[in-house]
Amino acid sequence: MMNKITLITTVLNDEKGLGDLFEGLSRQSLQPDEIVVVDGGSKDNTWQLLHDYQHQFPQLKIVQAPGTNISEGRNIAISHATNPVIAVTDAGCRPASDWLLEITRPLQEHADVDAVSGQVKPETHSLLEHYCGLLSLPDHSTEEQSQLFYGRSSAFRRTVWEQVGGYPEWLYTAEDSLFALAAKHHGFKAVHNAKAVVLWRPRSTLKKIAKMFYLYGKGNGRIVWGDIKGTFYWLRNHALFWLSVLAGLWFPPLWLATLVLGAHLYRHIAYPSLLTIRKLDKDWRREIFVPLITYIRNLSTNLGYLSGFMEYKKNPLFKEKLDKYLAH
CA-to-CA distance for 310 and 149, rounded, in angstroms? Predict the structure, then answer.
């Protein structure tokens, strides 16, 4: 017997993203038994559009919760869900026609599977978006990543959410990573299904790319994913590089140090990604876009991680909430 499925998502001032999502949902080979959308207080036409979609999707429930973040919105949505299987995606994503079928298939067919991650593929309109997409997505081929299920494309049993204690509401970013980590900590089994595809449009400007990676890093810094020494190492190299550039304006021979530092950053930041991208993409312009984006990714992520880590260290509530959450 098939378990019934509730699809949840959160929105905020995202008329176009809502259109992309529901266009994808209209084409699903398997329709969700229930859809719950939480609006975090949209000021545009999002709220009215949601009511318009109820004519096409009679199973759609709409909840208004002004001021809520993504974690709070997802928890509210699941609290309104009535089914044992929860599927999650984001506004702005366009699920492929078999996405819901495939993202829930392991849960329907295997009683020992508790959560599923799907594949996210970039849907791009420019070269910058194209390479940003290739450099932004998780690699589920590693054992660590295979145990994580992200909000853009995931499904899990409601019992996972109940026992973990919901999404961590004190986090603005990395909330889905910590939720998945907590599920693993509780002994729940997650698998990856590459056939469950969601199309996602990457950031379209360098400023938006930098902000995205900064927030990713800040979220991870708040939950202390790694060693802060690595962050200091990279930020020191970035600082030395730009100091040599500026100092060279007064004493040009110092630009030799700029070349050495630039070569070091290229070798350790851009080149490993280029080796991978060259296998996927034959456009020569990758040699420009990949170093540029990977440099921004490294700098922004480490600045964000340092900021989040300092918050974690200075505010005892972060550690208290993290310890309590993982021990729930």
Answer: 27
Backbone angles phi, psi at 264, to 5 degrees: -65, -45
- How far is C-alpha 58 from the chain's CA centre? 29
Is 37 in contact with 68 (CB distance < 8 Å)?
no
Q: Residue 133: helix, strand or coil by DSSP?
A: helix
**pTM for this predicted structure:** 0.88
Radius of gyration (C-alpha) of the chain in whole angstroms: 21
For residue 5, the 8-state DSSP code is: E
Q: What is the pLDDT of residues 81-117, one digit of tens each?
A: 999 999 999 998 999 999 999 999 999 999 999 999 9
By CB neighbour count within 10 A (0-12 exposed, 13-18 middle, 19+ buried), where does 51 fall?
Answer: exposed
Pull the structure tokens for residue 140. 């589920």
H helical segments located in the chain = 15-26, 46-53, 70-80, 99-109, 127-136, 143-146, 158-164, 175-185, 206-222, 228-247, 255-265, 271-280, 286-314, 316-326
Residues 290-318 as b or e (16 or more Cβ within 10 Å = b): bbebbbbbbbbbbbbbbbbbeebeeeeeb
91's tokens:
């506004």
108: exposed, middle or buried (Cβ count in 10 Å: 0-12, 13-18, 19+): middle
Domains of the chain: 5-200 (3.90.550.10), 206-326 (no CATH)
pLDDT score recorded for residue 147: 67
